[in-house]
């Protein structure tokens, strides 16, 4: 009789050892045993899973070695049930992180038999697996061959090629350490050593040593397991990489997957939490891709969803610096004996060389004296004009860079000729060569350049570029060195020197240098000059480290693979192996993550600007006063009502509030009291909106009144278990907080006040409570006393909020100084600790403090349960608003989906899309990850299933390919339902399109695949919507041009079967069906007038729909800044809301004026974005243009300020206002047109006078 064993493993590396063990047993004992081996990758389809099930009854023993619980075996329940039914011995075995006790319960072996099988397999290696087979022969064939007990192999230890023992490796490495070279620690799994899968480790060691370093490789079983005897990652790091409390290594190259410092449901130990912080050296992530070399090389995506989760997203939680694949998983020849195909990780030599070089550059930062280090600091500049140098959202870049330079000088860096402040620093930058070249003659450009790159030098660099990159560059820009920034046989380098610091301006991306390419080349390569600039930084200036300052530049958005870049990808070609540090706003995880994953950036997140209540101003205050007088007159002096009545309407009309409320006087008169209630509610909604108070300065915590404002904003919403301060104050005053918020205009006759006035009182009391601690010097222990004193009674919940504010938020905000500290830490080759990201004022204050290398979310947990609730509310609100406007349901909704907002919220947008279609996620109870989808029955849904067309950003495509597959699955599930077409718009549209395609002669299978496409994005490796580039270049005529570019850039289909298939006709067809569009905003820390991306993606969709359909869709902006109280406004309403609360608010304008050059540049950008919104979606009425002109351009004091701090900003504002008039977007009065033209000539003369023309000297 032959013993037949079914051996399934989710850990494919052990297959080679298993095959060798079977051969060894058969040689020694004859054909007594047969092993049928299956790996997880063998069971991807239903046929293979059926084969596995058919195999079970034929076996005498079933061994299932899992990794990640039962989900790691397809058909787990059926396999185990079948084995138990047939009384076949079954061993379900755990690996790291699995619940061993639970898996024992799923097995049917005795405890002793289970223990032996588990240890034979768990210890692993050829010898243990051989002994497992002999034990099995004895146990089930009644033999009595001698068999040793399971033999533990070393779980951790030093490794060096050719060494036969750890002692030998230790002695060799000890000698190498004496050489005084930079030391690179290497972490790799013990299983690779056990199975001999160490070729990639050997190559990494070789690369490190060839480049002048010492490699210190350590293998380990990452999880501490007392039963097995493994000590775990914390012990390994502390005992192999440290000596006497000091790091023995200068940097660690980590090849491990997942996060090592995150608790799992079955494993949580304190010692892991800060282990890398305690070690204190950079952690460089070298990726072992589960794809083969050919799959990775030929993939436009780079890394697939599994790699992104295991080797990118989760390691970011540890603070890893994400790099590139250094090895790929190659399947060896399938073993005819077991059916197994062993795998090995085979090094990608060139990528391995890059990672070794990057690691050594980080290591040398720890050893090189500060005074000798050369540092490049790059200021972003888009559009490439003088008003926008240092563009970084929410950050005063000049002041921040100045603070950084001062700190560097104090730390011993050679910083020379440093101006006294940020304003003077910018004057110095502007006196050198910048990207705005129109004012200067070629000789002056050359004179101002910081450096020049000889065309011969660049051609030599170019010749070393990968061939495919060379061809791409020549196709787009001609032979090297091209024409951009090429003067007098040189490529010029813009920037200035400050000792060993180069303060540079990021080179132009290229779209504005050749605007015609916007129409057809989303994959436009950067100009030759761009690559020459970065290569000059590395090879001529010899920078030791590069800083890019703030959100965001162009480097990380250059064409190439999405994640896991090759040498031919342009971000990799530019940044090369330079250590890269990137201060970045904490509320933008998506775009910051792009920099991490495509340019190996170490993020140092910075605080959002202080958030404050918008308040009332000017004509809004006047109307509020009149409303208050009117309500008082109703109770005390009715004779005043007629005059107040007329005065209120006059002021409303003068302020154009009748347009905001979409009401005429005739309609208002029909129910005057209702109109006043709506008016008061609207004014209060504006007043109560959070807006930014100026800009943040790196490393500078809010203090005094700014601290009070920030605490008010942070405690406005609940923070986890900590309740809302305002809501609790409302309760103690006897107010119904929900009622106050839902209708602030309601006049309560019993209290003689409106609900809005009660909310003002609540805000005032909350402020006083916080001021008592910030300004009064009270401690958290005195909270009960303060509450009693200010509110007249005790309240435990208010005390709880105040204690949270004082004990948690105040120290967290004070720790904002870590932003600067960790910049210096990175410069010194230290470890920047990881931290969460998000919008702190959205009930996420616990993400503070800033100054950390932020991470985002686990892609497999999107959407989260919390996001599902918000997404359903957003969907309901959208449909309710649409029905109010149109009286029916939309057949199809266009949704703009970005990575950033879904990383912040956990997937609100995804939940909204799923719920519109009537599908809900199914979550794993333990991990919170999505394990499937379920259709919501129509009876429960209570409405039709709405079709959706999603325009996803390129970053979303790269980060959430698994979510794209999830949505695609949902579309197919809904399309397959047998339901009436008027209740299932998805199925109706799919059926109609399939019929049309089949009638055109298209294969039915292909027709259905194409008809199911619902997710569209950029071509693989490309980013952006193109529309903003076109508008900035002024290279368009009407919405047809804008729509054409929108489709050209975004018409690529993504599904489970298609990755970036050119589907522009299908995208047009989907847009032709769109009746409503939406993009949701989840925080008031940023709004749709803050960036051209908003109008480029959403406004572009509106323009495209109009161009294709001939009519504007009904377009919405979802507001979930308070997740418990979502709102849905039309784009027109949201525009007016933002203009009233922020854009025209003197409080905000004055706060920006505090920041001089940068504040002026941001005002300039705002006008440009407003222009873009009107060009794409037609949302700016004439009075809004007039208000912008008066507030920003024609006000004499503003003109004086602009001319002093940033005259280019004023020029850009006036240019865009005049362009709006010229294009017929604004029907301006003749005198307005004339005033703006005169101002433009005036500022042009001002700028010409500022320019030092050599011919005029």
Report on this model:
This protein is an alpha/beta fold. The protein has six domains: 3-141, 3-Layer(aba) Sandwich (Rossmann fold); 157-365, Rossmann fold (3-Layer(aba) Sandwich); 370-608, no CATH class; 612-816, no CATH class; 889-1137, no CATH class; 1145-1256, no CATH class. It is built from 54 helices and 38 strands. A hairpin with a 2-residue loop joins strand 16 and strand 17 (490-493). Helix 1 crosses helix 6 and helix 16 (397-410) crosses helix 17 (422-431). The longest helix is centred in the C-terminal third of the chain and has 22 residues, at 865-886. The radius of gyration is 32 Å and the shape is globular.
Which features characterize this protein?
1257 residues, Rossmann fold, 6 domains, 54 helices, 14% strand, globular, disordered C terminus, Cobaltochelatase CobN, Cobalto_CobN
What is the topology, as strand order, of the major beta sheet?
35-34-33-32-29-36-37-38
Give me the secondary-structure category: alpha/beta
State the helical fraction. 40-55%
Number of domains: 6
* Low-pLDDT residue intervals, each spanning 5 or more residues: 264-268, 1253-1257
- Rounded radius of gyration (Å): 32 Å
| Major beta-sheet overview | 8 strands, mixed
The percentage of residues in β strands lies in 5-15%
Shape, principal axes of CA atoms: globular
What's the average pLDDT? 96
Distance between the termini: 104 Å
Number of strands: 38
Structure annotation, total helices: 54
């Amino acid at each position: 009789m032959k013993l037949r064993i079914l051996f399934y493993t989710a850990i494919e590396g052990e297959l080679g050892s298993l095959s060798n063990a079977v051969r060894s047993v058969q040689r020694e004992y004859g054909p007594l045993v047969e092993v049928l081996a299956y790996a997880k990758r063998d069971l991807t389809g239903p046929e293979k899973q059926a084969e596995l099930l058919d195999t079970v009854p034929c076996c005498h023993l079933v061994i299932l070695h899992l990794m990640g619980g039962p989900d790691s075996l397809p058909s787990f329940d059926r396999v185990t049930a079948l084995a138990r039914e047939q009384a076949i011995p079954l061993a379900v075995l755990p690996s790291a992180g699995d619940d061993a006790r639970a898996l024992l319960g799923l097995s049917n072996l005795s405890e002793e038999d289970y223990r032996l099988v588990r240890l034979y397999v768990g210890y692993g290696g050829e010898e243990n697996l051989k002994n497992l087979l002999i034990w099995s022969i004895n146990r089930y064939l009644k033999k009595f061959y001698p068999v040793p007990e399971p033999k533990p192999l070393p779980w951790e230890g030093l490794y060096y090629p050719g060494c036969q023992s750890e002692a030998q490796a230790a002695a060799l490495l000890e000698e190498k350490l004496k050489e005084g070279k930079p030391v690179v620690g290497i972490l790799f799994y013990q299983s690779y050593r056990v199975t001999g899968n160490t070729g990639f480790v050997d190559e990494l060691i070789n690369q490190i040593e060839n480049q002048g370093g010492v490699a210190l490789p350590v293998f380990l079983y990452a999880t501490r397991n007392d039963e097995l005897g493994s000590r775990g990652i914390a012990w390994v790091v502390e005992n192999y990489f440290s000596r006497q409390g000091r790091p023995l290594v200068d940097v660690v190259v980590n090849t491990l997957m997942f996060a090592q410092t995150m608790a799992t449901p079955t494993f949580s130990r304190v010692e892991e939490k800060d282990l890398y912080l305690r070690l204190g050296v950079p952690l460089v992530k070298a990726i072992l891709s589960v794809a083969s070399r050919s799959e990775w090389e030929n993939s436009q995506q780079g890394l697939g969803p599994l790699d992104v989760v295991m080797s990118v997203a989760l390691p970011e939680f540890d603070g890893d610096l994400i790099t590139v694949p250094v090895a790929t998983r190659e399947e060896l020849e399938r073993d005819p004996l077991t059916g197994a195909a062993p795998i090995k990780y085979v090094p990608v030599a060139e990528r391995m060389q890059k990672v070794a070089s990057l690691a050594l550059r980080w290591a040398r930062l720890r050893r090189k004296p500060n005074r000798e280090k050369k540092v490049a600091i790059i200021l972003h500049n888009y559009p490439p004009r003088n008003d926008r140098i240092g563009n970084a959202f929410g950050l005063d870049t000049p002041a921040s860079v100045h603070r950084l330079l001062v700190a560097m000088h104090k730390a011993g860096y050679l910083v020379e000729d440093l101006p006294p402040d940020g304003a003077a620093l910018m004057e110095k930058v502007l006196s050198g060569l910048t990207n705005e070249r129109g004012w200067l003659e070629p000789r002056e450009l050359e004179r101002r350049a910081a450096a020049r790159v000889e065309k011969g030098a660049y051609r030599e660099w170019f010749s070393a570029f990968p061939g495919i990159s060379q061809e791409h560059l020549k196709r787009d820009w001609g032979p090297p060195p091209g024409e951009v920034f090429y003067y007098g046989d040189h490529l010029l380098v813009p920037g200035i020197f400050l000792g060993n610091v180069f303060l540079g301006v990021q080179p132009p991306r290229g779209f504005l240098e050749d605007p015609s390419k916007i129409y057809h080349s989303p994959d436009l390569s950067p100009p030759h000059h761009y690559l020459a600039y970065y290569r000059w930084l590395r090879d001529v200036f010899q920078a030791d480290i590069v800083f890019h300052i703030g959100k965001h530049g162009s480097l990380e958005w250059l064409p190439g693979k999405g994640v896991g870049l090759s040498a031919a990808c342009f971000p990799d070609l530019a940044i090369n192996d330079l250590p890269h540090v990137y201060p970045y706003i904490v509320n933008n995880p998506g775009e910051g993550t792009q920099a991490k994953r495509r340019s190996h950036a170490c993020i140092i997140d910075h605080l959002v600007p202080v958030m404050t209540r918008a308040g009332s101003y000017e004509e809004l205050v006047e109307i509020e006063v009149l409303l208050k007088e009117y309500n008082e007159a109703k109770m005390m002096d009715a004779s005043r009502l007629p005059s107040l009545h007329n005065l209120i309407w006059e002021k409303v009309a003068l302020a154009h509030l009748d347009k905001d409320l979409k009401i005429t006087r005739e309609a208002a008169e029909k129910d005057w009291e209702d109109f006043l209630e709506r008016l008061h509610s609207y004014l209060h909604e504006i007043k109560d909106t959070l807006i930014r108070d100026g800009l943040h300065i790196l490393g500078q915590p809010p203090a005094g009144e700014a601290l009070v404002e920030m605490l008010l904003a942070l405690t406005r919403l609940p923070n986890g278990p900590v309740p809302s301060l305002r809501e609790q104050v409302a309760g103690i005053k006897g107010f119904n907080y929900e009622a106050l918020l839902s209708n602030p205009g309601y006049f309560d006759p019993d209290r003689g006040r409106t609900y809005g006035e009660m909310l003002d009182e609540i805000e005032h009391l909350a402020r006083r409570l916080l001021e008592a601690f910030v300004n009064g010097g009270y401690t958290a222990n005195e909270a009960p006393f303060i509450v009693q004193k200010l509110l007249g009674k005790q309240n435990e919940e208010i005390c709880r909020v105040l204690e949270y504010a004082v004990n948690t938020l105040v120290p967290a905000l004070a720790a904002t100084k870590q932003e600067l500290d960790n910049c210096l830490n990175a410069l010194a080759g230290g470890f920047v600790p990881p931290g969460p990201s998000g919008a702190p004022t959205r009930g996420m204050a616990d993400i503070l403090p800033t100054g950390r290398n932020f991470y985002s979310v686990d892609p497999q947990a999107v959407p989260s349960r919390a996001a599902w609730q918000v997404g359903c509310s957003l969907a309901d609100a959208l449909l309710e608003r649409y029905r109010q406007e149109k009286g029916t349901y939309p057949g199809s909704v266009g949704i703009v989906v970005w990575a950033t907002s879904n990383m912040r919220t956990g997937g609100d947008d995804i939940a909204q899309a799923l719920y519109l279609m009537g599908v809900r996620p199914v979550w794993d109870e333990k991990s919170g990850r999505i394990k499937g989808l379920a259709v919501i029955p129509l009876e429960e849904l209570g409405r039709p299933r709405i079709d959706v067309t999603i325009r996803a950003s390129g970053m979303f495509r790269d980060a959430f390919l698994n979510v794209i597959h999830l949505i695609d699955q949902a579309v197919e599930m809904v399309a397959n339902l047998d339901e009436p077409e008027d209740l299932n718009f998805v199925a109706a549209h799919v059926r109609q399109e399939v019929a049309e395609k089949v009638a055109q002669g298209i294969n039915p299978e292909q027709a259905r695949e194409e008809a199911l496409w619902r997710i569209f994005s950029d071509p693989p490796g490309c980013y952006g919507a193109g529309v903003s580039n076109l508008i900035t270049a002024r290279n368009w005529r009407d919405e047809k041009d804008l729509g054409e570019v929108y489709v050209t850039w975004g018409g690529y289909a993504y599904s489970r079967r298609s990755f970036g298939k050119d589907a522009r006709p299908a995208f047009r067809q989907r847009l032709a069906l769109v009746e409503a569009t939406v993009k949701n905003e989840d925080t008031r820390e940023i709004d749709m007038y803050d960036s051209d991306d908003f109008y480029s993606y959403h406004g572009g969709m509106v323009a495209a729909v109009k161009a294709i359909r001939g009519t504007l869709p009904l377009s919405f902006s979802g507001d979930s800044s308070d997740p418990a109280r979502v709102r849905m406004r039309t784009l027109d309403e949201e525009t007016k809301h933002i203009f009233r609360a922020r854009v025209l608010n003197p409080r905000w304008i004055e706060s920006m004026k505090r920041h001089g050059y940068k504040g002026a540049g941001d005002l300039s950008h705002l006008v440009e974005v407003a222009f873009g919104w009107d060009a794409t979606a037609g949302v700016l009425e004439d009075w809004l243009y007039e208000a912008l002109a008066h507030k920003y351009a024609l006000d004499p004091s503003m003109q004086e300020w602009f001319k002093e701090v940033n005259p280019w900003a004023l020029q850009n504002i006036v240019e865009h206002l005049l362009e709006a008039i010229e294009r017929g977007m604004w029907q301006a009065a003749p005198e307005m047109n004339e005033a703006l033209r005169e101002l433009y000539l005036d500022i042009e003369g001002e700028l010409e006078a500022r320019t030092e023309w050599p011919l005029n000297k």
